[in-house]
Design goal:
The chain is of the alpha+beta class and about 650 residues long.
Length: about 650
């Protein structure tokens, strides 16, 4: 067995082939793993000072190769990441073929195929039988012949979409992957049992966490006579209180100094800071900050009820990216260097900032770059700490009142689990804002859709001719949602019965329905507008240059306007009507991601269909596997705007990936 660290370039160059043995599972990486890899690449591109990035080990074993000249290796471990990289390189090659033919040819003949070999020996990677057909079509630029969505094809579509969304030069992207990715290459000898090695590498035993490695590293630098005492006093309480969160706490602890530490680099980052001279001090400081972190992940341990309530808000909104900043704040609060009222105001500002960005669809990936250095930036300011924090955050894509209010009325607040938590948070904060003298038992309440999630024929009649469009676009919006303890009784009852039950509620949110006779799109939008005004009092715009003037109503955003351009994934697409906005947007989605288009079409089945005769004004938008798809274009400008926003959301793009100029 021979092991050494090497660049990915040395693994894939030359006349070589990696054969995935039959005892290996099929390709199984999904979006979660692709996203992590893509974020690694983007970080390497944006930070040219980073010389290399370790992506793991690759275990191979030489095998007999015929014909001569093709160095064949069984790929014992590392199949998933190596297969993904080959697919990614195929995407770059295909995109480069449009205007950088030399780069496209270089990628193909250097990194993807063995140019002068035939049959399967052409491929530098030969997957298992179940993956071989789709993989070969992707490598041979024949993806048009793929008639079904597989994990491999989904991988291709994911990276194609991400590269098109980015502005990264394709040659820089290629060089980054090839020259900055490093691996530990382990080559087995002929006497080694490949299957046994594979079983050992994939055994069910729980591997050491980075926290385990850090613990061992600490105690190697502390006197052995003190190990038991130090473990009982400092390490064991951290391990007991934080459990599976211990490694993440240590990452946030390191980041509070302003560093950006990746989750897979915690051990090495802290290791660089520990010496024989400071190991004891760092261990004590780490244990001290762990007591604060315990309160972050379980606010019930916070003794002050006002602070506990705000830590609960931050936890419920999954604002873990703020923890490095909050560790600093809490530490200075504990030392009486920050007053309680100022600390509470800082917590409110953080909640305000993150929630507004979430509602406005601003990508959260830059938050981990904002918060680690925020405390030091604010301290260096001559202003009061909380004022300095506000001033800094106001420059970090902090939504204005107009933006926040408009998106709050349009946004899908209910759906996936993360959305449901945010929706509940907003509704509970709305109810609390009415100033009840007695506490509201929120634990006993559930989220209720006034227009129900399943429509009866009576409900369709009640909603009117546009019932399907209104249902698709407004079901999960703020105006249609409330809190109730009558969820099972309400179900999909007619509005008259719902109104009767909601009128008996002690919640201020539900008193609104007492004087409402019809519940349709106009009624939903009106309530959305009223609640949005209330939300602005809960999370007001902070900073010195707060907006003034009349707030924009969501319905007035596009009604009566003429669109000029669509900015879609950094492409400029000229349009002249809202009907064209709809068709151009859907055509683009179909062209970049067939699978997502089909999923979206299924979700919007009353607006997108293979039977255009059922629509009042159908227009063709795509042809997939010989089947033509039509969209209903007999819609208002506002309905089209909502439909496009919904479509962008359904294909997992961010709001700023699709922007209308009008």
């Amino acid at each position: 067995m021979n092991a050494n660290e090497t660049k990915l370039q040395k693994i894939v160059e030359g006349t070589v082939q990696y054969v995935v043995p039959l005892f290996q599972r099929a390709y199984s990486w999904r979006k979660e793993q692709w996203k992590v890899l893509w974020e690694d690449i983007v970080e390497l591109v944006e930070n040219p000072d980073i010389k290399s990035h370790f992506i793991g080990s690759i275990v191979t074993m030489p095998t007999v190769s015929v014909p001569e000249g093709v160095g064949k290796y069984l790929l014992i471990d590392g199949q998933q990441r190596l297969t993904t990289i080959f697919v990614l390189m195929a995407v770059i090659r295909d995109l480069a073929s449009f205007n950088e033919d030399r780069l496209s040819q270089e990628i193909n003949e250097t990194y993807l195929i063995n140019k002068f070999k035939e049959d399967t020996d052409r491929y530098k990677l030969l997957p298992t039988q179940s993956d071989r057909s789709h993989f070969s079509k992707l490598i041979d630029s024949e993806r048009g012949e793929i008639n079904e969505i597989s994990d491999l094809y989904s991988c291709y579509l994911f990276f194609e979409r991400e590269i098109r969304r980015s502005s990264i030069d394709l040659r820089i992207l290629t060089n980054t992957i090839i020259s900055k990715f490093s691996v530990v290459s382990i080559v087995l000898g002929a006497e080694d049992n490949a299957h046994l090695v594979f079983e050992s590498l994939n055994a069910k035993g729980r591997p050491l966490t980075q926290a385990d490695l850090i613990r061992n590293f600490f105690f190697m630098r502390l006197h052995s006579k003190e190990h038991d005492t130090l473990y009982e006093t400092y390490w064991m309480p951290m391990q007991r209180d934080l459990r599976d969160d211990l490694t993440e706490f240590i990452r946030h602890y390191i980041m509070k100094s302003g560093l950006d530490v990746r989750s897979d680099n915690v051990y090495f980052s802290l290791k660089d800071q520990i010496s024989m001279n400071n190991a004891m001090d760092i261990l004590k400081d780490l244990a001290n900050h762990a007591t604060y972190y315990k309160r972050f992940i379980d606010p019930n341990f916070e003794p002050d009820p006002q602070i506990s309530k705000r830590l609960f808000y931050i936890k419920r909104l999954d604002m873990t990216t703020t923890y490095p900043f909050l560790l600093n704040c809490y530490h200075h609060y504990a030392l009486d260097e920050i007053r309680k009222d100022e600390f509470i105001e800082i917590l409110d500002v953080v909640e305000n900032f993150v929630l507004r960005r979430i509602i406005c669809g601003i990508p959260s990936n830059d938050l981990r770059k904002i918060f680690p250095s925020l405390f030091q930036q604010a301290v260096n300011s001559k202003d009061r700490l909380v004022n300095a924090v506000k001033s800094i955050l106001q420059t970090k894509r902090y939504p204005t009142d107009n933006q926040f209010r408009a998106e709050l009325q349009r946004a899908e607040l209910y759906g996936r689990q993360d959305r449901e938590k945010r929706c509940r948070h907003i509704l509970e904060r709305l109810e609390s804002s009415f100033g009840h003298k007695e506490g509201v038992p929120f634990d006993l309440l559930t989220i209720e859709h006034v227009m129900p999630q399943t429509l009866s024929d009576e409900w369709k009649k009640h909603l009117g001719a546009t019932w399907q469009t209104d249902f698709d676009l407004m079901l999960n919006t703020l105006g249609n949602l409330t809190l109730t303890g009558y969820n099972s009784e309400l179900s999909n009852s007619l509005f008259s019965k719902k109104k009767e039950l909601l009128s008996q509620s002690h919640l201020e949110l539900n008193r609104y329905f007492q004087d409402i006779e019809i519940w349709n799109a106009d009624a939903i939008e009106k309530r959305s507008s009223i609640l949005a005004d209330q939300v602005l009092t809960i999370w007001p715009y902070f900073g010195e240059a707060a907006e003034t003037g009349i707030l924009v109503d969501a319905k007035a955003i596009v009604t009566g306007t003429v669109p000029v351009n669509i900015f879609f994934l950094k492409q400029l697409l000229p349009v002249s009507s809202w009907r064209e906005v709809l068709t151009v947007t859907l055509k683009e989605i179909a062209s970049i991601d067939t699978e997502k288009f089909l999923q979206m079409a299924s979700h919007l089945s009353q607006l997108i269909s293979t039977d255009g005769s059922s629509f009042r004004r159908p227009m063709s938008i795509a042809q997939i596997s010989g089947i033509e798809y039509f969209v209903e274009t007999h819609l208002s400008a506002q309905q089209i705007y909502r439909t496009c926003k919904k479509a962008i959301e359904l294909i997992d793009l961010e709001d700023d990936d699709w922007v209308i100029e009008y």
